Predict the 3D structure of the following.
Amino acid sequence: MYQDGEIKRVEEIRLITNDYLLEQMDWPTIKEKVENGMDTVIICTASVEQHGYHLSELTDTLIGQAVGLLVAEKLGNALLAPVIRPGLSEHHIPMAGSITLRPEVYRGVIEDYVTSYKKHGFKKVILFSSHGGNFNENERIVISLQKMHSDMQFSSALSLMQLMGLMSQFEKRFGLAEGSCGHGGAMETSVMLHIAPDQVDMNKAAPGYVGPMTEDVLNMLFESGISGITEVGILGDPRQAKAEWGEYFLDLLSDEIVKAFYKDLSI
């Protein structure tokens, strides 16, 4: 059961959703919004993959939607597309339930999203990821999309290294050990406690690999898979997570995506 504060937050998210989430609108409403200047579409690529013992495999999708809705709200002239999932999750496949797409299929879905939305009058696209495995491919896709649709403007939002910088900032702010906020760690768990506490079982929360995310560790992760680093499937320590920390990180991340959008489009 939700507590009073959780019910209030769920209601707030529903209100934002009704204003900005394309898949919950009828087509005349979307047409009217685009004609009235809401010409930016936000596309989040997420994943369906393991997140340790305590989080559901829907984690990246739920976080991506929450971030995208805040970005849309802060921009005011943007709408959020249905979150794309699964993503590129080959490094999670050894753990049950994880799904991964072939890179060419993943790219094709994004390209078809953009082509569809262009036909409806959208002129600007923000492509961001809530899953680490999508970042590098997204940057390449944005370059390709800009060539395919020269009359549109594109932003790839943040790089993976920039996201890791925000996680480091999160750790320092709340006095956490370095490396506490990787995959399924303190940050993602805090966000999930804030937006979807029913998808979290803190009684099962267990730390995985905790330490600096060096280039060697990242290479091992993407080349050998997460199971070669941690049996739990976690990068970090979720046990100290707090819902209010999750609200802070959502605000921080959405702010940075908005800044990147303005910078990329020289607005």
About this structure: Residues 4-264 form a domain with the Rossmann fold fold (CATH 3.40.50.10310).
